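Input chain follows. Return structure tokens only.
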Amino acid sequence: MKTAKMVTAKGEMSIVFFEEDAPKAVANFIKLSESGFYNGLTFHRVIPNFVIQGGCPKGNGAGGPGYTIPCELTGGNQYHDRGVLSMAHAGRNTGGSQFFICHSRENTAHLDRNHTCFGNVVEGLEVIDAIRQGDKIISITIEDKE
């Protein structure tokens, strides 16, 4: 099982991936993380009680990795609860590098089966609440757990 440690300006988050439910999104995030793509990028969109969003190389929500990946919406973990890591996109099958992490279920239920959920923050949930627009992702390290 692959996991990730995301180090941000406000602390660390440990992430478990939904490899069975969203294998393409997980593989894409791992590939970008291992290449250092996310290092130094900001959380360019922060909406309290909704989401923190990062992964845009332009820092404004208009950038990506230069390719798109398909949405994966039929798996069992496609519910946007607190701490869920999900793909941002500009329409179905246009995701690339941008992702968001949910603050709560209260304002994110409408995203279910519209955005691919591909992981969950299992440690460091308080970091989600501390992140502000412009805070940086220092690094993302992928680990193998058994």
